[in-house]
Amino acid sequence: MDTIKYNQMRDTLKDKNYFDNLIIKLYSSQERRYKKIKNNEIKLDRLKVVKRSMSGNFNRIITAKYSRGDDMCSKDLYDDYKKEVTLLNEAWEQNTGLFPFKIGSEIILLNQYGRSAYIIMLNRLSLGVLLNASIEDYILLVDYIDKDEVKDFLFEFLIKQLIPERKKCTQESYKDFFDINETFDSLKQVIIEDDKNLAQKGLKRFLEKEWYNCFKGTPLYNEHTNEHNTYSGYWCFVAAAIVKIKQLDDSSFKDNQYYPKDLIQSSKEQ
Questions:
Q1: How confident is the model over 30-38, as a mean pLDDT?
Q2: Is residue 5 part of a domain?
Q3: How many domains does the chain have?
């Protein structure tokens, strides 16, 4: 195991002791579940549900480590990411995660994610870009999205950074937006903006006015007040990924409370 290198605490809503305890608790849960999987102690019809939950836990561990001030270039942290995407890929199941939409008395599944699932997937894709994920690992995540037949311009913008030969997406899969495009439209305008100054201003505005509001209506909103201590951080990883890909100047928003500025430097050092 790597020797943990700490920088200054990055989160301002919780202290180091909180994140220490959260990370220990999550790792302990993962170890118990890995042991049960190895010993065939989980019923087959529950296995994929358990693996999806474990993948989510690794996402929370990575986020909590950033909040705590951990070195984001460590092998241990990348191993967490690798395990996260591997478990998610192994847990794929047809129609799981897609959004159910009611038309009259009929319920159909749309090729899109609900807001919570969308934000989490956005974080996963963005972290892959920022951690310089290997194609072999990143493709596990992309494969999951492709199996769901979800087409989203923001997803594709991130994917193309690590898989440049990927076929260009010309149309999103949404039949009914379920407010995904309404919520993230300004960010989608940033990624197609050729004027870097305008892109920087758009990203600054999104961080200041829109990012946290994206959580409304999901369990992520006000999660830092959750009595069960589920909060790991409100970081907008996609903002840092966009800065890296478009080579933007982040000086006007680098101190924003949601912007993970240290990941930009970590990404350059890898």
A1: 97
A2: no
A3: 1
